[in-house]
Amino acid sequence: MTPGELVRERREQLGWSQAQLAKAAGTGQAMISRIESDRVSPTVGMLTRLAEVMDAQLSLTMFQV
């Protein structure tokens, strides 16, 4: 799954709108929309902030090709 898909899935589990998530994370609804639709790649800082406000844990995994 992409970061945007994960954000959308967790937001929907919580029953939140994009506007509610944006307000909690201190960003705009348009940014949440762009993240969820994979039009932008969120920074690690933004993902951390989103995870915190949605009571989730951010986990990064490195792999070799």
UniProtKB/TrEMBL annotation:
Span of the signal peptide: none
Domain of life (superkingdom): Bacteria
Pfam families to which the protein is assigned, alphabetical: HTH_3 (PF01381)
Keywords in alphabetical order: DNA-binding
Record domain HTH cro/C1-type: where: 7-63
Cross-referenced SUPFAM superfamilies: lambda repressor-like DNA-binding domains (SSF47413)
Keyword DNA-binding appears in the UniProt entry: yes
Gene3D superfamilies the UniProt entry points to: lambda repressor-like DNA-binding domains (1.10.260.40)
CDD domains (UniProt xref): HTH_XRE (cd00093)
Protein name, UniProt field: Helix-turn-helix domain-containing protein
